[in-house]
Amino acid sequence: YTEAWDADKTSIHVMPDTPAILLAKANAANISNKLYVQAWEEAKKKGYDMRADAIPIQSAKASRDIASDYKYKLTHEKEKGHYVGCKTAQEDPKLALAARAMMLQNDRLYKKAYNDSKTQIHLPVDMLAVQAAKECQTLVSDIDYRQYFHQWTCLPDQNDVIHARQAYDLQSDNVYKADLEWLRGIGWLTEGSVDVVKAKKAQELLNERLYRTRPEQLKFTSITDTPDVVRAKINAAQISDV
User: Fold this and answer.
1) Strand, helix or coil at 193?
2) How far apart are CA 134 and CA 129, in angstroms?
3) DSSP code of 37?
4) Which has more confidence, 23 or 50?
5) Rg of the chain taking only CA atoms, in angstroms
6) Which of 27, 84, 90, 184 is 20 to 30 Å from the Cα of 12, by its Cα?
7) pLDDT of 28
8) Would you report the helix, strand and coil content of the chain in percent, each value rounded to 5?
9) Which residues, including other chains, have CB under 8 Å from residue 15's CB and lie 6 or more apart?
10) What is the value of pTM for the model shown?
11) Residue 2 contacts by C-beta under 8 Å, 6 or more apart in sequence?
């Protein structure tokens, strides 16, 4: 079945200038790493000549001088001690500017005017804002909000008050146990008390000896000619190996 195909595979010839072959070669050249770095490798083989007065070298030196802290402070170091024409520090513009900046940054001087003026404020007692603040204070005050129980708002001989007192006396634990005060300190025996009797009854219910009756204590005589006994004897004789 495949003999003809195997014979034809060795005789097929593709022309090298077909579009598919050309496209494959172009793709191989595009993705080839060797061709990608070929120009760079050839340039490295030729070498390079970088002179000291080249533009990139001059630009790098200028950038380094600008970024250098020494060059940045060189002018300031040279100008130290050469200030002339100012008799006092207040006449020097730079020192005056520094003093002004220090005063602006000083927190005490910044709040001095406020601290001096906050104690000189006078408000009339009948001012609308003051009256509103007083009313708000009265509303949120805990003292005015609460009314304690000892401050009676009704007469003590009213029917509601009398009925409430009677209900309190009925619910009071002291009044409820007042009739047992005469028993306090009197000795008594626990035998015959409710808890002791309850414990004895529970022990009798849980006692295994009293709950069960042993078979040897039962008075029972078996009848030998009952159908069950006769059948049992016949079955025993049938299954007996002897």
Assistant:
1) coil
2) 9
3) S
4) 23
5) 60
6) 27
7) 92
8) 65, 0, 35
9) 21
10) 0.20
11) none
- CB count in 10 Å sphere of residue 161: 13
Give tens-digit pLDDT for 125-181.
Answer: 778 888 888 888 888 887 767 666 666 677 778 888 889 888 888 888 777 787 777
**Across the chain, what does the average pLDDT equal?**
82
Q: Give the torsion sign (CA, 156, 158, 160, 164).
A: positive
Q: Which letter does DSSP use for residue 224 in this model? A: T
d(CA 133, CA 230): 112
User: 3-class SS at 157?
Assistant: coil
Check: CB of residue 196 under 8 Å from CB of residue 190.
Answer: yes
Task: Give ∠ CA 168-169-170 in degrees, rounded to 5.
Answer: 90
Q: Write the pLDDT tens digit of every residue in 29-65.
A: 999 999 999 988 988 888 777 778 888 888 988 888 8
Residue ranges of the domains in the chain? Answer: 192-221
Amino acid at 13: H
Return the structure tokens found at 168. 């309190």
Residue 229 · residue 237 · CB < 8 Å = no
Give me the residue label for tokens 């009848």: 223
Asked if 156 and 149 touch (Cβ cutoff 8 Å), the reply is no
How does DSSP classify residue 60?
A: H
Indicate left, alpha or beta for 136 from its phi (over 0: left) and psi (-120 to 50: alpha): alpha
